[in-house]
């Protein structure tokens, strides 16, 4: 069909090739087409219909559909281009985030390495100054600004040396101008072949700035005026911004003196004057000023000096005995004849002029704690046991110790700058500072920067996490109270920190809390029956979204958490499954079922994007960044299940286990134990009489022989029953271990072979002790009896002589006289009795025993130990005492985690001592090594062994 032309007869071709006649002139037609092109789809339809009026209805419909399809295809194409562009943009953003994180890690590593170098240089510088001070030059107190990352500018103090070298001054972290001058000189000589250049910076201005930043934190117990030179015990609540260190120390001392309560720290050596004063760097000044205050260890009231003590009485100066009252019970103790004429009740016995320094801490707490093992860029790994946080350098085999806590450390978190550490503890026994709290401290100087939440928490702090997307400015903590509270802290805002918010987290156990590494204000908590995604808004409000498992198996516990490099959350659960939660959502995007047989305890994100998981089944599994399993490694069953995994140097892995071991290795080599310990209450220890070995035994049934020089386990043996007492024979060839059912066993010290077993009664064997001449063995039992054996030429053969009976309570301690003719015993009701061991009869005549000299000093109730009993002590508070071979020192261990060093004998009611912390529960045993220089202490429920050095 066609239309006639009005003018020149020219035609146009239709959409189907049909010839159409124009209805207007060519110019008009061009304008018409232009209008058509500029109209909408609906207008195009109308214009097409108008132009093609002569076209059939079917052709018109076809044209309309084709136009719509064209526009639809264009729209879909543009949408596809936008999606592609968006995906590419997201990928580029993820890549940029990854690069930024890698660069941050490199910067952090450089900062940490520099901080460690400065610490080591300060040690060398201090050693140099100490060596030259003997020629008449006084000690120079120097200070340096701390390397505290986001808490930058805080002063640091370090008294730690590697490998037992001379210690740093306990007052400051020293990096003096002398060191800088020597370094500059050596560099100039090497590079340019000329003498040292003059230092042009203003020393006075630098010194002023450093002095303003330097803060001294009192760590003193009034029982002592010393510090552990491998360890620093800063006071837990200093302000990083307080300007006057001397005022702080003096005010704290005045407060303590007025209140009658000593702080629970290891020394008073840092009660110093201002940094510029002559006594600011030496302990002698503080000793002379404050040693009189050490009377606080007796009654807490210095006004009693010169008066008779209510718990030690001597009615007349002519009396040959004193009465010691323990728990209200009078105990008659006879005075040796050599001291009758000079013994005065009001005389004060000074503390010894030597101190104890924590040399090594044996053990690790992996049995019931998580996220407690980290590798620092300086090469040290950080972990804890008892109240000690340990920084261990595996390459150099050295330890440093942070001793700021007053009770069990339960959690750790490392700041994103890898220099600062947060550690949380449970509640202690006495005073405000023993309440649950968090300490923020510098891992290089071991200086405390802040104490968080003292008085705010009701349970132990079992989870900690620094924020990561904002450079660690805030800290999240989980209070293991019945309400399981989560709290957010601005930890550097002020002294004590500022609590931003808190809310109830869960009715059930919370296993971990983690800040999202990329999304600011995003926090994830996991635990029993839940995973929760929290958002912290700008107003400090927390909002929670619970994780939705949908069709996936919901576990009883979500037990482990980590993050991919793109920000997805990876969790492990108690059923052995792994789940991936897409970033920004609370739903599972991927689910890997039954990766482990049993709970997944840990997920470690590797630097290359891969993961290592560890579980109760003892397996370590290696995954790539796409969660495809690549390798596996098995942890031997006697080490326990995998509790935590941390990446060490290169491909090295650090593995903490549920049996309190730390292993090192990778997926190509076997795992080697580097830290071992006990897993249940540690009751006893005994030192070797000739070499640097000692043996321990505990409720975990483990008998372990240790080397105190290499700080390692020689061998470990499960004897099949709990161990309550141990003793190495005088010849050093056999070990005796007392059990709980009246049975005691003899083991070869080299082969650990069981040689013989003996039974005395049906109660616990409390103590075992050989006579000095090695002819007799005394066995103290909980059945109130002492069993005497004759030793034979065969080390493991003993012949029973008889039984000493007369005590009204269990036997607690035994001592032999130096001539091996008399045995002395204490019981649970504080009796002190004497025995003729060959006849198994009690000696009732005091005149025959009061002048005897004793080979050991294990009995806590005796004339030599009168001064160790403060007025308010219960008879059960002191668990163990010992003296060194030279009889210079007496050490006692109590129920409050303290070790006190006295001069021997501590026979005066007013006997001063140095007090030290490190244990977090009752200290069950203390004993000197054969050389008299090293002391060992066993920590009972904290399962640790601490090795001290007399300095």
Features:
951 residues, alpha+beta, 5-stranded mixed β-sheet, 4-stranded antiparallel β-sheet, 8 helices, 16% helix, disordered N terminus
Low-confidence runs (pLDDT<50, min 5 residues)?
1-24, 134-307
| Shape call | elongated
- Percent of residues in beta strands? 25-35%
Number of helices: 8
Q: What integer is the average pLDDT?
A: 79
Level of helix content? 10-25%
How many E strands?
A: 60
- Counting helices, strands and paired strands, the structural category is alpha+beta
**Radius of gyration in whole Å, from Cα?**
38 Å
Summarize the biggest pleated sheet.
5 strands, mixed
Spatial separation of the terminal alpha carbons: 119 Å
Lateral strand order in the biggest sheet: 3-12-11-10-9
Question: How would you explain this protein's 3D organization?
Answer:
With 951 residues, the chain is of the alpha+beta class. It contains eight helices and 60 strands. Strands 3-12-11-10-9 form a five-stranded mixed β-sheet, with no helix packed on it. Helix 2 (41-51) runs antiparallel to helix 3.
Secondary structure: elements and pairs:
Blueprint: E1 12-13, E2 19-20, H1 26-37, H2 41-51, H3 57-133, H4 177-192, H5 203-213, E3 231-232, H6 245-259, H7 283-290, E4 312-313, E5 321-326, E6 329-334, H8 337-340, E7 348-349, E8 356-362, E9 374-375, E10 380-385, E11 388-393, E12 398-402, E13 409-414, E14 420-425, E15 438-442, E16 448-452, E17 461-466, E18 475-479, E19 485-490, E20 498-504, E21 510-515, E22 522-527, E23 530-536, E24 542-546, E25 558-563, E26 569-573, E27 578-581, E28 588-592, E29 600-605, E30 611-615, E31 619-623, E32 629-634, E33 642-647, E34 653-657, E35 662-665, E36 672-675, E37 682-687, E38 693-698, E39 702-707, E40 712-718, E41 725-728, E42 734-738, E43 743-748, E44 754-759, E45 765-770, E46 776-781, E47 785-791, E48 798-805, E49 811-816, E50 823-827, E51 832-836, E52 841-843, E53 878-883, E54 889-894, E55 899-903, E56 910-911, E57 914-916, E58 925-928, E59 934-938, E60 945-950
Parallel strand pairs: 3-12, 7-56
Antiparallel strand pairs: 1-2, 4-5, 5-6, 8-60, 9-10, 10-11, 11-12, 13-14, 14-15, 15-16, 17-18, 18-19, 19-20, 21-22, 22-23, 23-24, 25-26, 26-27, 27-28, 29-30, 30-31, 31-32, 33-34, 34-35, 35-36, 37-38, 38-39, 39-40, 41-42, 42-43, 43-44, 45-46, 46-47, 47-48, 49-50, 50-51, 51-52, 53-54, 54-55, 55-57, ...
Helix pairs in contact: 2-3
């Amino acid at each position: 069909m066609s239309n006639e032309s009005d003018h020149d007869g020219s035609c146009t071709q239709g959409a189907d090739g049909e010839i159409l006649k124009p209805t207007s002139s060519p110019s008009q037609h061009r304008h018409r087409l232009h209008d058509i092109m500029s109209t909408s789809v609906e207008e195009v339809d109308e214009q097409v219909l108008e132009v093609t009026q002569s076209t059939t209805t079917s052709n018109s419909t076809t044209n309309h559909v084709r136009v719509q399809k064209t526009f639809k295809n264009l729209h879909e194409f543009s949408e596809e281009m936008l999606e592609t562009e968006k995906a590419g943009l997201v990928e580029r953003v993820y890549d940029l985030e990854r690069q930024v994180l890698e660069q941050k890690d490199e910067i952090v590593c450089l900062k940490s390495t520099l901080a460690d170098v400065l610490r080591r240089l300060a040690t060398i510088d201090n050693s140099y100054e100490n060596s030259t001070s003997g020629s008449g030059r006084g000690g120079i107190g120097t200070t340096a600004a701390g390397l505290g990352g986001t808490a930058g500018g805080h002063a640091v103090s370090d008294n730690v040396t590697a490998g037992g070298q001379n210690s740093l001054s306990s007052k400051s972290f020293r990096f003096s101008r002398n060191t800088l001058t020597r370094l500059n000189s050596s560099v100039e000589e090497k590079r340019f072949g000329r003498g040292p250049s003059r230092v042009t910076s203003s020393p006075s201005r630098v010194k002023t700035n450093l002095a303003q930043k330097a803060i001294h934190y009192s760590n003193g117990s009034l029982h002592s005026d010393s510090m552990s030179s491998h360890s620093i015990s800063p006071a837990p609540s200093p302000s990083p911004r307080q300007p006057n260190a001397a005022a702080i120390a003096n005010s704290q001392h005045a407060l303590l003196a007025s209140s009658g309560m000593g702080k629970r720290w290891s020394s008073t050596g840092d009660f110093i004057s201002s940094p510029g004063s002559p006594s600011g760097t030496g302990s002698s000044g503080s000793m002379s000023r404050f040693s009189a205050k050490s009377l606080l260890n007796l009654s807490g009231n210095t006004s009693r000096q010169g008066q008779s003590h209510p718990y030690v009485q001597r009615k007349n100066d002519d009396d040959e005995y004193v009465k010691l009252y323990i728990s209200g019970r009078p105990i008659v103790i006879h005075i040796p004849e050599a001291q009758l004429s000079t013994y005065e009740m009001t005389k004060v016995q000074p503390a010894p002029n030597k101190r104890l320094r924590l040399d090594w801490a044996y053990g690790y707490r992996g049995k019931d704690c998580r996220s407690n093992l980290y590798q620092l860029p300086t090469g040290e790994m950080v972990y804890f046991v008892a109240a000690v946080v340990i920084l261990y350098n595996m390459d150099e085999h050295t330890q440093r110790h942070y001793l700021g806590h007053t009770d069990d450390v339960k959690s750790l978190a490392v700041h994103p700058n890898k220099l600062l550490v947060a550690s949380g503890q449970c509640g202690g026994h006495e005073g405000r500072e023993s309440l649950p709290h968090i300490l923020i401290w510098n891992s290089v100087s071991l200086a405390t920067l802040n104490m968080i939440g003292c008085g705010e928490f009701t349970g132990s702090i079992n989870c900690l996490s620094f924020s990561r997307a904002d450079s660690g400015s805030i800290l999240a903590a989980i209070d293991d109270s019945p309400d399981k509270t989560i709290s957010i802290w601005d930890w550097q805002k002020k002294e004590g920190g500022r609590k931003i918010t808190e809310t109830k987290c869960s009715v059930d156990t919370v296993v971990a809390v983690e800040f999202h590494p990329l999304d600011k204000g995003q926090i994830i908590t996991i635990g029993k029956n839940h995973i929760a995604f929290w958002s912290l808004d700008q107003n400090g409000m927390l909002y929670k979204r619970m994780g939705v498992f949908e069709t996936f198996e919901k576990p009883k516990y979500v037990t482990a958490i980590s993050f991919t490099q793109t920000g997805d959350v990876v969790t492990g659960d108690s059923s052995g499954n792994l789940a991936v939660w897409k970033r920004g959502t609370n739903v599972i995007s991927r689910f890997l079922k039954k990766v482990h047989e049993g709970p997944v305890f840990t997920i470690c994100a590797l630097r290359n994007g891969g993961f290592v998981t560890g579980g109760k089944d003892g397996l370590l599994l290696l995954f790539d960044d796409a969660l495809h399993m690549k390798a596996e490694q098995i942890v031997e069953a006697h080490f326990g299940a995998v509790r935590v995994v941390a990446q060490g140097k290169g491909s090295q892995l650090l593995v903490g286990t549920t049996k309190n071991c730390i292993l090192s290795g990778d997926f190509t080599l076997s795992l080697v134990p580097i830290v071992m310990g006990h897993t249940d209450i540690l009751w006893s220890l005994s030192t070797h009489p000739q070499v640097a070995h000692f043996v321990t035994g505990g409720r975990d049934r483990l008998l372990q022989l240790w080397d105190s020089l290499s700080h390692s386990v020689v061998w470990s043996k499960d004897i099949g029953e709990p161990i309550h007492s141990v003793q190495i024979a005088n010849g050093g060839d056999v070990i005796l271990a007392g059990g709980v059912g009246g049975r005691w066993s003899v083991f070869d010290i080299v082969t650990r072979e069981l040689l013989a077993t003996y039974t005395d009664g049906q109660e616990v064997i409390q103590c075992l002790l050989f006579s000095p001449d090695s002819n007799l063995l005394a066995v103290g039992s909980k059945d109130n009896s002492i069993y005497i054996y004759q030793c034979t030429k065969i080390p493991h053969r003993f012949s029973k002589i008889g039984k000493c009976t007369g005590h009204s309570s269990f036997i607690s301690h035994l001592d032999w006289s130096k001539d091996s003719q008399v045995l002395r015993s204490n019981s649970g009701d504080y009796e002190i009795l004497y025995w003729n061991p060959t006849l198994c009869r009690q000696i009732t005549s005091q005149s025959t025993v009061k002048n005897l000299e004793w080979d050991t000093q294990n009995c806590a109730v005796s004339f030599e130990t009168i001064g160790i009993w403060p007025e308010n002590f219960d008879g059960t508070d002191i668990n163990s005492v010992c003296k060194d071979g030279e009889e210079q020192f007496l050490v006692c261990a109590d129920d409050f985690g303290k070790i006190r060093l006295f001069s021997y004998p501590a026979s005066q009611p007013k006997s001063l001592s140095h007090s030290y912390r490190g244990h977090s529960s009752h200290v069950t045993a203390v004993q000197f090594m054969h050389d008299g220089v090293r002391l060992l202490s066993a920590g009972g429920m904290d399962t640790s062994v601490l090795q001290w050095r007399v300095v």
